[in-house]
Specification:
about 240 residues, alpha+beta, seven-stranded mixed β-sheet, four-stranded mixed β-sheet, 7 helices, about 30% helix, about 25% strand, disordered N terminus
Length: about 240
């Protein structure tokens, strides 16, 4: 009889521990508008999609604008070194934790969308659709000019839709499609070159690399600019051996 009573009690005592194990707390390192690191934990903010730091947009005047960096910096400035609480909803095969994060009770995902630095990730949820409508109406963040949705940026082609609260210039699509792979680095922070060798490997070259100047950045060759070694490695690239 004693064993029957103890077993449920032991299970009940374990429940709070299991729930707490899913939470990650601490001051994060902001990688981009929807990716952070807390300690060794890599976290993607759930329900939103923000531009990666190599993404370019167009400002109201039609000029190229480093909106991915702007989104990252806006998030970093808003949280200003404060501690986060992230409740993990799932963990992907590569170890990336997808989580909803709060700072002093504020929903960080909602703040990013409402201020125009991220979109509601409608492919997986509609949690922040209303906040996105407010941002668009206010021409906040990305919505002040023209841009490509972050999910389209990752697989962009000639059919990719150009978004924005203002009418984009006629050549907006061509400018936006070429911005991360063309001959000009998207920003002074993104000068690492990535190319694919004959064996199909992605190789990255820092400005100090021997062959850096000889790597021609062309969309047709599958080249790409990276903003850090960490970003290049995360994309599956290795450093050149020369």
């Amino acid at each position: 009889m004693l064993k029957i009573l103890l077993l449920p009690l032991s299970l009940i005592l374990l429940l709070p521990v299991t729930a707490q194990a899913a939470d990650i707390t601490g001051v994060p390192k902001i990688r981009d508008g929807d990716h952070v690191m807390i300690g060794s934990a890599r976290i993607r903010l759930a329900g939103i999609d923000a531009p990666s730091i190599d993404q370019l947009c167009l400002n109201p005047g039609g000029d190229r604008w480093t909106c991915g960096i702007a989104a990252r910096d806006a998030l970093a400035a808003h949280v200003a070194g404060k501690s986060w609480t992230c409740r993990v909803t799932r963990t992907e095969k590569n170890g990336l934790s997808v989580a909803r994060c709060e700072v002093a009770g504020e929903d960080i995902q909602q703040w990013m969308v409402k201020n125009g630095w991220a979109l509601s990730y409608v492919r997986v949820a509609h949690t922040y659709d209303a906040d996105e409508k407010l941002a668009r109406a206010a021409r906040a963040g990305l919505w002040q000019g023209a841009f490509i949705a972050p999910w389209d940026w990752r697989v962009r082609n000639k059919k990719t839709t150009v978004l924005g609260a203002t009418r984009p210039p006629k050549n907006a699509r061509n400018i936006l499609l070429a911005s991360a792979s063309g001959p000009v680095a998207p920003s002074p922070d993104c000068t690492i070159k990535g190319n694919v060798n004959t064996a199909g490997e992605c190789i990255y070259h820092k400005p100090t690399s021997r062959w850096y100047a000889k790597i021609k950045m062309k969309i047709s060759k599958g080249t790409r600019w990276f903003c850090s070694v960490e970003d290049a490695v995360a994309a599956g690239c290795r450093e050149t051996r020369r």
